[in-house]
Structure formats: C-alpha cells, structure tokens
Amino acid sequence: MLRPRHSAMMLTEKKRHAKDSIGTLRRIWSFLSDQKGRFAAVVFMVIMSSGLSLLGPYVVGKAIDTYIVTKQTDGFVFVLAILVLIYLSLSLSTFLQNYWMIQIAQRTIYLIRKQLFYHFHQLPIAFFDKRQHGELMSRITNDIENMSQTFNSTVIQVVSSMLTLVGAVCVMLWLSPLLTFVTLLIVPMMYGGMKWITNRTQKRFKEQQQNLGELNGFIEEVISGQKIVKMFSQEKRMIAQFLSKNERLKQSGFWAQTYSGFIPKLMNVLNNVSFALIAGVGGILALKGIISIGVIVIFAEYARQFTRPLNDLANQWNTLLSALAGAERVFEILDVEKEERDETEAISLPEMRGEIAFRHVFFSYDKEQEAIRDVSFSVSPGETVALVGPTGAGKTTIIQLLTRFYDPDRGHIFIDGHDSRSIKRASLRQHMAFVLQDTFLFQGTIRENIRYGRLNASDEEVEEAAKWANAHSFIMKLPNGYDTVLNQDGSGISQGQKQLLAIARAMVANPSILILDEATSNIDTMTELKIQEALGRLMNGRTCFVIAHRLNTIQNADRILVLNEGQLIEQGTHESLLEAKGFYYELYHSYLKKEEIS
Ligand SMILES: Nc1ncnc2c1ncn2[C@@H]1O[C@H](COP(=O)(O)OP(=O)(O)OP(=O)(O)O)[C@@H](O)[C@H]1O
C-alpha cells in the first residue's frame, strides 16, 4: 500500500529537482546579460561546427559512391580539397567557440563571485552566528570553481552534442529510414541505462559537495583553534572527528564517481552493438541493392558521431549536474535576506553624545527562549558602565542590541534621544569602537591595522594614536616599525601587544561609545599596567560599556549593571551594591574566593 504514495512522492521530488535546475539555469543566464552578443557568436560557431562535423562524413560517403566504386578520378582532387576545407573550418570554429566561451564563463563567474561577496557584507550577523565559517568559504571557493570549470567547456559540449545528434538523425532519415530505425534501436537502451545512473549520481554529487563543505569547515576550525586543541589535548578527538568526516566524503565521492564511471562503459558497449547492427543490416541492404556502400560508410560514421554526442552528453551531464548543485548552494546564500534595510526615514547622526536608554527591552535569538527580558536602564554621556553577571546572563546580547547587530523584539533603545531603529546602522556603528578580548587583526601592516579604525587617518594621526595607546615603543622595536606585516591572526606579536594595537585602532576611530570586552585577561602585569593606562586615556570623556568577568577591574566603573538570566536585577556603584548584600555581593565574594584558591 505504501508503494504508490512513495512513487508519487518521488515524482514530486523529481519535478521539484527539475524545476530547481531550470530556475538555477535561469539565474546563471541572468548573469550573462552584458555578453549576449558574444554568446550569440558562440551559438553560431557551435551550429557551424556541428553542421561541418556532419558534412564531412557525408562528403566522404558520396565520394566513395561517385569516385571509388565507379573508379572515376575526374574531380576527385576537388572533393579532397573540399574535405580539407571542411575540416580546417571545423577546427577554426571549434577554437573560436572555446575561446569566446571561456571569456563568457570567466566573466560570469567573476560577476557571481562579486555579487556573493557583496551579499556577504549585507547579511545579518545572525546568519554568520548560525553557520560554520569554513562551510561558507567552501561555497565561495569550491562551488564557484566547480561552476567555472564546467562553464568553460561543458556547456559548449552539451549544446554541440545535442545539435550533432539532431542533425545526424535528420540526415540518416533522409538517406535510409530503415537503417536509421536500426541505428536508433540502441536509444531506449541508452535512455534506460542513463536514467538509472543519473538518478543515483545526482544525489551522490550533492552529498559529495555537502560533505566537502563540512570537512572544509571542520579543518578551518581546527587550524584556527589549534592552540586550544593542543592546550586541552584534544588532538585524538579532533583526528577521530576528521576521520569520520573524511570517510563520509570518501564514501560519497566513491559512489558519485563509481556511478558516473558506468556511463562511458555503457556507451562503449552500446557503440559496438550499434556498429555491428549497421554493418550487418547495412550489408544485407547493400547486397539487395537498396542502399549503396557509401551510405553504409556514412551511417557507420554517423552512428559514431551519433553515439559520441550521446556519450559526451552523458559524461558532461554529470559534470553539469555537479556544477548545478554547486550553483544552487551559491544561490541559496544569495537568497538569504539581507540585513533589514534601514527605515527610509532613518537618520544619520553626524555627532553623538553617547546618551543611551534601554526601555523595557525584550529579545530572543531563536524566538523561543528570551536572552533579554524587560531590561531598562539609562546611561549619561561619558559614563562608564560595567555589565556583570554569570555566563549566559545576557551581557553580550545587550551589546549586540546596542550596535544593532540585532534589534529588540519589544521595547526601545534610545541613543541621544533617537530610537535606535530610526538611526542608520552604518551611522550608529561609526560612532562606536570595540576593544575585544579576542583582538582580530587583518593581514597587513601595523599601520594599516591601526588605520582600520578610520581609513582617512594620516600617518601622523596613526602614530599619535599608537603613542596614546602605549603601543609606539614596541612598534618601533619591530624590524620594520609601522610597516611590519602582521599575519591574519597577528602571530609574531604578543597577546598584550595585540590589545595595545586594538586600543590604538579604537583611538584613531575616536568613538563616542566604547565597548570593552574583558580586555585585560591573560596578560603579564607590566603589559596589563600599560593596557590599563592606555584604556584610561581611551575611555576618558566617552560613554563606555565594559563586559568584565574579573570583578576587580570594574570597581571604578560609574555604574555596574548586574544581569542574571536575561534580567537586570541590580544596579549601582561597587560600594552601594556590596552594601545591598544582594546578587552582586554573592558574585563578588565567590569571585574573591576563586582568586584566593588560584
Ligand atoms: N547567536 C546566538 N544564537 C542563539 N542563542 C544565543 C546566541 N548568542 C547567545 N545566545 C543565548 O542567549 C543567552 C545570553 O547570551 P549572552 O552571550 O548574551 O550571555 P553573556 O552574559 O554574554 O555570557 P558570557 O559571559 O558567557 O559571554 C544565552 O542563553 C545564550 O545561550
């Protein structure tokens, strides 16, 4: 009883697949808009070369009947010259079509890659929070490269194979319908075999791409987290995970390749069957005087021409399917909605004082569990506010909302009296700077990294900021000073030095609101003093939010906001909160105990 339903489901699934593939092809086509002329030239060349490849054998067959069978030599040289011309033109048109198609393919891929990268920058932070970075990398590199390889040659081969196929059938029908029928006997066999194989390969290729993405993501994670892996002696576990992912990729790759490998074998067998049929049936027909020897030669050649395109089609079809699977994965990202647009009437703030008010703010990441519940507080310009609370209390979430990486589900955040939703995101962020625990430096010189805070800062301003950030002296000791090139992860300089650079970068940005995330952990005392001094300078006169886990670093904050399970449960100065003997008091004493033990 289950069967009909099952096959109905399969049918719907297949229809969906076909619809998806057509949709994907349409989208690829839309990237060709500025190259339609060149594409038309390629199509013309493909038609020409397909026509010439059919004309060649036809002339050969006719020459056999006219000159060889009748032993006539007059005009034979002329026919040979025509044949040479046909095959030379065929080579030229094939060369041109490939040359232009590669140009088209490379430009199309360039445009898709560009759009994808632009799109990445417009996606909400939530998108990156939820996905493995390596897997995303795989889409922008592997999948696009796969598409590029395919469009360079496969598309032409598929089109030219189809044309040759149709042309060959037409000429064969014209020459001998009976022998055509015999030649076409292999088509149902081919169709059945191909259908069986492609049903399996399509699924496996998609799996292969997916597994490759997962493996890449994992490798990227392990390489960037190598120190953590070693610190926690997790090498064996990482290797075990790698092996299982690698095994899955091997399996899907093995089956994808195995199934697609059946295609040439099947075609070979059918090729030989078809040749034998033509030779046998053609021979009988020739003996009966129904067809000439030349026609048998033409058929034998066309049968090869006819099964070769089918063969090519089958081979290339798989490549095309695999590229389409890649293209679908790329378009999937292009379909992810961009970060909500700023409201049309959203304003830019040329200046910001740094006055902040949260009013009954509620927020959840997954629309199930609230990360922030009914939080209200106000911050005056220039005030330093510390956010404390156990892990998962919602400290980072407050910052995510302040920076509009996310917007509240309910309630309002006011900045300088404006609802944050009415301020353009870029304008809002322009007045903010971060000094995070995990300082992220880009590959480039120290100067470029500091200038990242404000791209139009002069060299003098960069050096001035570095001096204020206590970074100048260590920079000058580096072999190339400000022109020392840092790796992406900033290896080559210490953790503390990285933080000093981050402070200099924030200085250059000259923000009204500063966000510090536990900026002084794991640093030696000397460097910590330098950092504290630099931070003091940076914080002066700005509204500051400090997320701190080490409660001794925030005692001088103007106000401490104590969060627990998404709620703001206490606020006040360090002294007033200790006096109140509430949650902060408990937190502080358990922190002191922990410090004593360690
Ligand atoms: N990207 C996310 N997607 C889903 N849930 C999240 C996400 N980020 C945080 N959360 C959840 O929201 C809640 C608040 O997290 P948040 O990161 O704000 O806590 P925190 O106080 O900064 O913690 P920590 O001190 O550990 O950094 C937690 O329950 C956390 O699991």
UniProtKB/TrEMBL annotation:
**Residues in ABC transporter domain copies:** 356-590
Q: Which InterPro entries match?
A: AAA+_ATPase, ABC1_TM_dom, ABC1_TM_sf, ABC_transporter-like_ATP-bd, ABC_transporter-like_CS, P-loop_NTPase, Type_1_exporter
Return the PROSITE patterns for the record: ABC_TM1F, ABC_TRANSPORTER_1, ABC_TRANSPORTER_2
* Chief subcellular location: membrane
Checking SUPFAM superfamilies in the record gives: ABC transporter transmembrane region, P-loop containing nucleoside triphosphate hydrolases
Q: How does it sit in the membrane?
A: Multi-pass membrane protein
**Which spans are transmembrane here?**
39-60, 75-96, 275-300
Annotated ABC transmembrane type-1 domain residues: 40-322
A GO molecular function for this record?
A: ABC-type oligopeptide transporter activity
Q: Which GO CC annotations does the UniProt entry carry? A: plasma membrane
- Name the record gives this protein: ATP-binding cassette subfamily B protein
